[in-house]
Amino acid sequence: MTDLTKLTIAEARKGLKNRDYTSLELTDAFLSNIEAANAQLNAYVVVTADKARNMAKASDETLAKGDGGALEGIPLGIKDLFATNGVHTQACSHILDGFKPAYESTVTTNLWADGAVMLGKLNMDEFAMGSSNETSYYGDVINPWRKQGSNQDLVPGGSSGGSATAVAARLCMGATATDTGGSIRQPAAFTGTVGIKPTYGRCSRWGIVAFASSLDQAGPIAHTVRDSAILMKSMASIDPKDTTSVDIEVPDYEAAIGKSVKGLKIGIPAEYRLDGMPGEIEDLWQKGIAWLKDAGAEIVDISMPHTKYALPAYYIVAPAEASSNLARYDGVRYGLRVPGKDIVEMYENTRAEGFGNEVKRRVLIGTYVLSAGYYDAYYLKAQKVRTLIKRDFDLAWANGVDAILTPATPSAAFGVADQDLHADPVKMYLNDIFTVTVNMAGLPGISVPAGLDKDGLPLGLQLIGKPFDESTLFQVGQVIEDAAGSFEAEKWWG
Amino acid sequence: MSVDTQTVKRVARLARIKVSDDDATRMTGELNAILGFVEQLDEVDIEGAEPMTSVVDQTMKKRVDGVTDGNKADDITRNAPVSEDQFFMVPKVVE
After folding, report:
1. Is B1 in Cβ contact with A388 (below 8 Å)?
2. Burial of A491: CB neighbours in 10 Å, binned 0-12, 13-18, 19+
């Protein structure tokens, strides 16, 4: 029998419908991969094997009747940021110790309604703050990719590092993820997978642990552009429980795949060419341009003068919102409590022990920039810069650009515990230099694997689209995937 | 702008995070690195730019002002570190 874990969602969907195999067989195949690999890769923080088998059996009964939703019987991994009823939901933080919500996030509710099977909860940077999945309370996630001839552990990127590793190492068919500054697209690029952050307001944020509410969006990580379109369709919805959920019907994203890109205008922003950027990233970008040109797209040079200010503005806006959102973790309503001599000391002790260093750093920055006398100098200014960043994009769309092509990350995956990156927080933040503009402007962005670097590590290209035009990203993304092929890490783990 | 260790301690107090003297010293350096980085924004001409309030062009949705949820005190207190009779228990706050 073929290895069921090597199938795409699109293939498994067909096989399940034809009854070539059952969802239980498929689910068991993934559970046994997880059992063998998780000690080394640390992608899952909880495996819900019994729940998975029960959901798979229910799907098999539905399929046997000739019924079934769009994801009937498809086993998925869920980032620990999504509330799952009665199941570990801690944003991989110590402060949410033991938290099991009595409710389910809208995004996961949508997935289960479409028949998907939950394998477990995936590791991530604590509260989604990180670019290497090294800030999790549950330890580092390891990238299934290694440099050729090396056995050094590499990071999978972050914050959705567990999601990216689980997909790349065949520990699930697809995974949910979230993206506040690049947390879907950067790990996808580091692991040779496809990741899309949709337009702000496309996926409901209800039941997703909040980091920076004006930037957070959920999206999928999967093996192919088509699989990510299938997942995106199920995850997105119009939700009365989230006032920022937008009243636009969710289109059939798959319908866009395979459509010609002839005549589409693809913008190439000069400002994404950084000083000191590795030649390989530039070469990859040129390759992407050539592929799209060959496919009939029109390539136009564009200018986005405020690009370089997106990351500094982000490091005001995101921590400010985080400091406010994370005020709720006080040792009273849920999670960890560390006693103190009075209630204030109890709060202080709880938050000192419950939050990791990166989270503390961002809460302090956020508290500082919002504090009396500094609000105008930092927060208000950053929100004005944000308006200018969005205006750069609006101008490109007004000039007829259909999508923008950029590199996804300034480098390939780096080593675990990289001294240089840990010595200076700003250096780590630079990982998101190409992705963060998209969050600041609320736009959709997809990262598609486009090649390998000289060490054999995957690199991704990013496509940025107009608001609620995810379809064009899937359409153009498929052209890149067709030209670049797909990439699989050579197996060294269990 | 940069911060000194005293300011870091004051901000930590505002954020209700206990920091030791060593923590405060280490964090002062880290916070100044970040504040130094964001100083680039001083170069931007923000004249006439409105601060962003919503990234998506949509009027805020409003719901009917009515009770749509409730009667689940057990669910709400279930995850509390200390609770009693559907109340959250905290150290004494009134003398």
Report:
1. no
2. exposed
Report chain A's C-alpha Rg in angstroms. Answer: 21
Smallest Cβ–Cβ distance between A441 and the set B27, B55, B75 belongs to B55
In a domain, A236, yes or no: yes
Q: What is the pLDDT of residues A276-316, one digit of tens each?
A: 888 999 999 999 999 999 999 999 999 999 999 999 999 99
Checking if the pLDDT of A184 tops 90, the result is yes
DSSP three-state, residue A66: coil
Residues in A closer than 8 angstroms to B60, CB to CB, are 243
To the nearest 10°, report the CA torsion of A428, A434, A440, A441.
Answer: -170
**Does residue B60 sit within a domain?**
no
What pLDDT is recorded for position A1? Answer: 59
ipTM for the complex shown: 0.96
Task: Count the neighbouring beta carbons within 10 Å of the beta carbon of residue A291.
Answer: 21
A345 near B CB under 8 A: yes
Catalytic residue among A23, A93, A183, A447: A183
CB of A360 within 8 Å of a chain B CB? The answer is yes
Residues of the domain holding A107: 4-259
Expressed as residue numbers, the domain containing B27 is 5-43
Most A-contacting residue of B18, B58, B71 (CB-CB within 10 A), to test interface:
B18
**Is A343–B75 a contact, with Cβ atoms under 8 angstroms apart?**
no
Cα A130-A134-A422 angle, rounded to 5 deg: 80
Tell me: pLDDT of A201 over 70: yes
Per-chain mean pLDDT for chain A: 97
Is residue A381 less than 8 Å (CB to CB) from chain B? yes
- Residue A308 counted as domain residue: no
